Amino acid sequence: MRQYKALVLNNICYTELVYERINKKMNRRLSKDEIEKVIFGILKETDESQFQKTGKNIYVINNEQNIRITINSNTYRVITVDPL
């Protein structure tokens, strides 16, 4: 089984549109820096076993935060964040 957590933490990146998408889905108004800090913190605290690659994406599920983060497995770009 491949370990994705370190790869994601070292290579994570964002597009301009994803900031808006995250704020909309999470019903928040966070700045880009705040979003990056929150997402990185969630990824860091999430157990490796919750990083699952399915197809071209890596899904990170954090039940404590009730959130699922979808990341492209080739570019490590955040695609979206969904409340659970």
Write structural notes for this entry:
The chain has helices at 5-11, 16-26, 32-45, and strands spanning 51-54, 57-62, 67-72, 78-83. It is an alpha+beta fold and 84 residues long. The chain has a single domain, classed as YaeB-like fold (2-Layer Sandwich), CATH 3.30.2310. A 4-stranded antiparallel beta sheet has the order 1-2-3-4. β1 and β2 form a beta hairpin. The protein is globular, with a radius of gyration of 12 Å. It starts with a helix and ends with a strand.
Rounded to the nearest angstrom, the distance between the terminal CA atoms is 25 Å
Give start-end ranges of low-pLDDT stretches.
none
Assign the structural class, choosing from mainly alpha, mainly beta, alpha/beta, alpha+beta, or little secondary structure: alpha+beta
Q: What is the number of domains?
A: 1
The proportion of strand residues reads: 25-35%
Number of helices: 3
The largest pleated sheet is described as: 4 strands, antiparallel
Q: Helix and strand string, N-terminal first?
A: HHHEEEE
Morphology call? globular
Mean model confidence by pLDDT? 95
CATH class: Alpha Beta
Helix content: 25-40%
Oligomer: single chain
